[in-house]
Amino acid sequence: NAGVTQTPKFQVLKTGQSMTLQCAQDMNHNSMYWYRQDPGMGLRLIYYSASEGTTDKGEVPNGYNVSRLNKREFSLRLESAAPSQTSVYFCASSEGWGLKQYFGPGTRLTVT
Amino acid sequence: QKEVEQNSGPLSVPEGAIASLNCTYSDRVSQSFFWYRQYSGKSPELIMSIYSNGDKEDGRFTAQLNKASQYVSLLIRDSQPSDSATYLCAVKNTNAGKSTFGDGTTLTVKP
Hints:
The complex is a heterodimer. Chain A is mostly beta strands. Chain A contains no helices and 11 strands. Chain A has strands at residues 4-7, 10-13, 19-25, 31-37, 43-49, 56-57, 64-68, 74-78, 87-94, 102-103, 107-111. In chain B, the strands form 2 sheets. In chain B, strands 2, 4, 5, 9, 10 and 11 form a 6-stranded mixed β-sheet that branches. A 5-stranded antiparallel β-sheet of chain B has the order 1-3-8-7-6, with no helix packed on it. The radius of gyration of chain B is 13 Å and the shape is globular. At the A-B interface, strand 5 and strand 10 of A face strand 5, strand 9 and strand 10 of B.
């Protein structure tokens, strides 16, 4: 089992560009999450999907959109990147809503 | 007030000592509590979960929960340099269902 995978691992964008971060899990988990982590800080929830077909906003959803493509895949889209979105992005999944989470390796995004 | 607060750290202990990491939370009806370890440049990994008052032991790790005081802690006995990492406390909020993370405490174990 690969667990939770994320692509890309690194990305540099110019202000105003768009991109999609991909996440997939092979553990048959129902819930999936997108977090961002800024230096010296904890994880802040951007969006989550409690189950296939549903998505909800977390603490910091502005500037992002998500798609739960199927049970395995949950993507995060930045429509018009801003320097404030420079961060490390983690995708996670859990068997049930709010239960122990398994994290992907992260995507380091820099917006110049 | 933050929903989940941790000692700001950093915390430094000598090898072989007990490291004590603390976490307080504001939602009185929180149900589930998790400790994650995050090595520098890596993703968080779950090391302990606790759901009821008291102590839960797993090897060198002990999680302690006191719901009346809204307090959860993680003790690491016989600390090793390999325990040097940032430890994140997460609390599942009953109504929202999702977990909220603290900012983490960075632990350094000196040989």
